[in-house]
DNA sequence: TACACCATGTAAGGTGTTACATGATTTG
DNA sequence: CAAATCATGTAACACCTTACATGGTGTA
């Protein structure tokens, strides 16, 4: 519950940042397992401030543009640490619209099936390529020898994302092979 | 948008059923890629009825227990077929709380990391075993030689679920190996 | 006869998306 | 000087979960 709360606390714990910075982190570093729009982030920051888990300092950018740089409090650190050690039951499997379509395969002709799966395969291959190049970049620029480090956290989630995408691509390829092999028109 | 609508239409298209039957299907056959509670199903059935995509017939079970058996209409079939052929952009990657925790690995000690990942591994191994036994059962009882069939749909989504779980298990094992190998206390 | 399961619904509240709204700064 | 980006917020709505609420059927 209130998972966005911990995603934000964890990021601000790494280093102080603004709501806008958080938005960018969600789109970049966390994109392979989390996302949040600014319309959700700003109200949550207000909430966390009221709960004394974070505080902010107003900084002037340029002439008059105000931005709020948030920092985690001691109380926030304690809650974050408590959360990270919780052992919760497995979440329900995530929803997947393509798998839902695939399940109702009987509604398509063979040609339509091949077309649908091929289109999906291309999208996932592109995504996989992006992740692989991000990994190449990470390995070239960061030191992941220390397990208890932000860099190692970055590394394992990226590794996990690549393995997940690879499994998706493998699955689509297997489906396509099975469909193509069949004799039906 | 309104994905539950199509999940329900697809299931009722396979064969007429009640809201309760749908609930069971979501928990069993669709569990590896979709889920919905009865509190969401019943209002959606009402909505679909108002839109003339499904109709129902009241059937008496036993002495007086009434149940509503829903059937898809021609209009419903047309909408379902239109949906299945749509080519939509890839959905954002699903959220994953464990990956979020893993990302913030710097908040744990080495022992805590091993404990967290081992607990998660056990859960996913159990899930994988359940899926594998479901596959064994499916292959023994159903004919999947026809690609354009409900049975083949059942087969491919189960195959996909197994591959996804296997990838998760592999990832957790790799993380554990990397952590154990490290010299830090 | 108690318990598990069958069967259907509503209400309140939390989570998340899209759209509305505004304005400053930086870069080409 | 235009466009992209930085920066922050609210409103309406859709989606989903938890809890409330009720009653019948089958079986051990």
**Which secondary-structure class do the elements of chain A indicate?**
mainly alpha
Spans where pLDDT lies below 50 across 5 or more residues of chain A: none
Computed Rg of chain A: 21 Å
Residue-averaged pLDDT of chain A: 96
Number of domains as seen in the coordinates of chain A: 2
Strand order of the largest sheet of chain A: 1-2
Tally of helical segments of chain A: 7
Number of strands of chain A: 2
Q: Describe the largest sheet of chain A.
A: 2 strands, antiparallel
The termini of chain A sit apart by: 49 Å
The percent range for strand residues of chain A is 5-15%
| Helix and strand element order of chain A | HHHEEHHHH
Question: What distinguishing features does this structure have?
Answer:
two-stranded antiparallel sheet; DNA-binding; Arc Repressor Mutant, subunit A; homodimer; 63% helix; 185 residues
What do these coordinates show?
Two copies of one chain form a homodimer. With 185 residues, chain A is mainly alpha-helical. Chain A has two domains: 3-84, Arc Repressor Mutant, subunit A, CATH 1.10.10.10; 97-181. In chain A, 63% of the residues lie in helices and 9% in strands. Chain A has seven helices and two strands; from the N terminus they run αααββαααα. Chain A has helices spanning 3-14, 19-27, 38-50, 74-84, 97-103, 110-141, 150-181; strands spanning 54-61, 65-72. A two-stranded antiparallel ribbon of chain A has the order 1-2. In chain A, β1 (54-61) and β2 (65-72) form a beta hairpin. In chain A, α1 packs across α4 (74-84), α2 packs across α3 and α6 packs antiparallel against α7 (150-181). The longest helix of chain A is centred in the last third of the chain and has 32 residues, at 110-141. Chain A is elongated. Chains A and B meet through α1, α4, α5, α6 and α7 of A and α1, α4, α5, α6 and α7 of B. Chain A binds a DNA duplex (28 and 28 nucleotides) through residues 1-4, 18-20, 23, 36-40, 42-43, 46, 61-68.
């Amino acid at each position: 519950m209130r998972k966005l709360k911990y995603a934000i606390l964890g990021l601000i714990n790494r280093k102080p940042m603004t709501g806008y910075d958080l938005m960018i982190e969600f789109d970049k570093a966390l994109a392979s397992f989390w996302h949040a729009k600014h319309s959700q982030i700003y109200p949550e920051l207000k909430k966390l401030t009221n709960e004394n888990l974070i505080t902010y300092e107003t900084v002037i950018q340029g002439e008059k543009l105000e931005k709020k740089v948030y920092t985690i409090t001691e109380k926030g650190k304690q809650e974050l640490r408590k959360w990270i050690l919780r052992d919760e039951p497995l979440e329900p499997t995530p929803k997947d619209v393509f798998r839902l379509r695939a399940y109702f395969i009987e509604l398509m002709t063979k040609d339509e099936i091949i077309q649908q799966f091929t289109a999906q395969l291309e999208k996932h291959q592109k995504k996989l390529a992006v992740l692989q190049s991000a990994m190449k970049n990470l390995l070239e620029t960061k030191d992941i020898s220390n397990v208890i480090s932000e860099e190692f956290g970055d590394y394992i989630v990226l590794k996990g994302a690549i393995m997940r995408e690879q499994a998706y691509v493998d699955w689509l390829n297997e489906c396509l092979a099975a469909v193509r092999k069949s004799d039906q028109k």
